[in-house]
Design goal:
Number of helices: 10
CATH class of the largest domain: Alpha Beta
Oligomer: single chain
Distance between the termini: 27 Å
Structural class: alpha/beta
CATH superfamily of the largest domain: Glycogen Phosphorylase B
Shape: globular
Mean pLDDT: 85
Largest sheet: 7 strands, parallel
Number of domains: 2
CATH architecture of the largest domain: 3-Layer(aba) Sandwich
Low-confidence stretches: 241-263
Radius of gyration: 21 Å
Length: 263
């Protein structure tokens, strides 16, 4: 069986990392097409032996991408097309139908209440999604919240499958030696209570709540990893002094662990 996974971009993010993890465990031959931004996760996939193609889509209204994607699917003789994220789901399902693929499924990794992929959610965006959703066999939701929002949009419940994100448990096994080494490198006392968070430091992740909570607790440390954006660090600057443990920890991680380290 040959499967093609289509994703909007391959920068560092949860959906992109989930795709890479998924491909490591699938017992079928898989290729990947990224519509835009063949970032660090594309490099990681290639290192895993996965063929990655950059479609070179120039924007949301680059309709020529449908033709290029259709030809790529047809030439690859794929049995299944699996799309990830909004733009890839819209364009990928259309292209899969035009290419005559027997089955197409989609995974929705994140749906905001008022936005999608960082853009305001409008009636037009929702209508476009619903019109193409019917071209696939099913839509996978990674959480009950995403499944509920799909139903609220108008996707029939019988077409939604709830499959939570997988976790590679081996990567998170307790390692006492690594624990001591990391604490020493960051200057964290051996017996200190540490709160951790992993993800893009963007407003939608609401790490500001964790920052405020930990700042109010004595002797508690907060470690955030995943690539800090200037706006997030600015928020912390506005609320806390530069001598604050939380702020120093965020800056230390940002400077010593760039995004590429999390691929």
């Amino acid at each position: 069986m040959r499967a093609l996974h289509i994703i909007t971009g391959l920068g560092v993010g949860g959906a992109e990392q989930q795709l890479r993890l998924l491909l490591r465990h699938l017992p079928v031959e898989c290729d990947v097409v990224t519509l835009t931004n063949p970032g660090p996760v594309a490099d990681g996939l290639r290192a895993d032996g996965v063929r990655v193609v950059h479609l070179g889509m120039r924007g949301n209204r680059d309709l020529s991408a449908v033709g290029r994607l259709t030809r790529l699917i047809r030439d690859g003789r794929y049995d299944l097309v699996h799309t990830h994220l909004y733009r890839a789901c819209v364009y990928g399902r259309i292209a899969a139908r035009l290419a005559g693929v027997r089955a197409a499924v989609a995974t929705e990794h994140s749906l905001g209440r008022a936005e999608i992929e960082g853009r305001p959610l409008t009636r037009g965006i929702r209508a476009l999604y619903l019109s193409t959703e019917r071209l696939g066999a099913a839509t996978v939701a990674v959480s009950s919240t995403v499944a509920g929002r799909l139903r609220d949009w108008g996707v029939p419940a019988e077409r939604i499958r709830l499959v939570p994100n997988g976790i590679d448990a081996d990567r998170f096994r307790f390692d006492p030696d690594r624990r001591l080494a990391v604490r020493a490198a960051l200057g964290i006392p051996e017996g200190a209570f540490v709160v951790g968070g992993v993800g893009r430091l963007v407003p939608g992740k609401r790490f500001d709540v964790a920052v405020r909570a930990v700042a109010a607790l004595p002797d508690v440390w907060l470690l955030l990893a995943g690539g800090a954006e200037a706006s997030t660090l600015g928020l912390v600057d506005d609320e806390f002094s530069t001598g604050n443990t939380v702020l120093n920890t965020i800056r230390a991680l940002h400077e010593s662990h760039p995004r590429e380290r999390y691929v």
